[in-house]
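[Discussion] Sanity-checking designs against the backbone

I'm trying to build intuition for which residues belong where. Below is a structure token string of 94 positions. I'd appreciate it if someone posts a full sequence so I can compare it with mine line by line.
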């Protein structure tokens, strides 16, 4: 599903309420101003420049790849070709 920034913010707020000891009213605004949601399909080259635009002037972004193993080559190539890996760190869910 495509989400708006407000929907992403609300989902993050609800998750923190349900899974942590509450929401820090000072830290939460700082967290959500850094969150970005980009809707796209890894099979389409246009997805990766959209990710790069969402990164803006971010330094050392983290790409968390919770994707099926078969998609790793496609996604890593797309990230690299678009410039999204410049200075980035990556991790994966196993």
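Best answer:
Here's mine. Compare freely.
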């Amino acid at each position: 599903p495509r989400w708006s920034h407000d929907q992403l913010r609300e989902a993050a707020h609800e998750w923190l309420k349900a899974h942590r000891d509450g929401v820090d009213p000072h830290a939460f605004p700082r967290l959500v101003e850094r969150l970005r949601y980009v809707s796209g399909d890894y099979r389409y080259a246009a997805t990766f420049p959209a990710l790069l635009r969402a990164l803006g002037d971010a330094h050392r972004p983290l790409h968390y790849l919770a994707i099926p193993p078969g998609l790793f080559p496609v996604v890593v190539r797309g990230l690299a070709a678009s410039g999204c890996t410049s200075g980035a760190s990556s991790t994966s869910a196993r």
